[in-house]
Write a structure and sequence with these properties.
Number of helices: 13
CATH superfamily of the largest domain: HAD superfamily/HAD-like
Helix content: 25-40%
Strand order of the largest sheet: 7-8-9-10-11-13-12
Shape: elongated
Radius of gyration: 23 Å
Structural class: alpha/beta
Number of domains: 3
CATH topology of the largest domain: Rossmann fold
Oligomer: single chain
Largest sheet: 7 strands, mixed
CATH class of the largest domain: Alpha Beta
Number of strands: 13
Amino acid sequence: MKNKYQYILFDLDGTLTDSGPGIMNGFVYAIQQMGGQVVDRSQLRKFVGPPLKVSFGDILGYSEEDTDRAIALYRDYYNNMGGVLENSVYPGIVELLSDLKSEGKKLIVATSKSAIGTDTVLKHFDLKKFFDFVATADDKERPHKSDVIRYALEQCEITDSTHVVMVGDRENDILAANEVGIDSIGVLYGYGDREELTSAGATYLAEHPSDVKKLVNKIELIDNILTPEDFVRLRVAAGFADIPVPHAGKALQNGIINVSALKDGELIGMGRLAGDGAMYWYLQEIVVLPEYQGMGIGTMIVNHLVDYAVKNSSTGKFTTIGGVSAKGKEGFYKKLGFDVIPNGIQKMIEI
């Protein structure tokens, strides 16, 4: 279990269940009862996930007194007028939870939702049986998502954070995980998008619940174990030209460093760094197998190689990292801080 997550923390709203309709209806009710009106209902999507105090107080700008009143109105609708059951389980979630339990994982709910709302949803959809512990928000003792995560870790007596991962759909889930010091999986089928989750610093991204299972058994990066045969195989899988194995061996030998991405011992991605080893560095063959693309693994590989270059640069102030982007992949590098230039990509880093 050295390189695997054993404790999986799940957000509830937007991660396990699509509770958006009930939550948004609750906001409409509370806002109208407070004398306001909702012109564009789509703007309420951002309230699925964050704590109510943040939504009413920080985002909507209510005073502390009005925030408390609005929260009471919202909860009245949500808990007493049927809002809590304007909800559905995302396809694939039951299968995911069942598979993880069968593998011996410890599953924990960590949600900004109230205890009563959480319990109602988990029981109604028969999800509670999958979880070893349920951690909910409390307006006084656990007002923030990071408080909920810390509470879950303390109550479950988890001391090794390297075996823990938080699964959530909004930036507050990812930011809280980073604050506590655990890895995170941002899910793209909920209410947050790729840009929001990437900007928040998600360790991985999952487009479907089945992708979460793939990522739970950690992705491991290991330097300089890539064989010429595997190098050729991954090149071809990514659409690069086939090359003779002896040429591949020479390329690996003459490069500065290569890194392999492994999942359960299986090679699923790679990257190389070439250059003079002091001032100028070049990214080569950043490859992730198609079935694992879009999950943040390519970002891990690039960041690993960039970190190596920065640590080993001998220039006085700046080091330059360049490369050639596959056609259509320029946006991937731009998000990582590279400039797109006529003949490739480039990034200058102050050291």
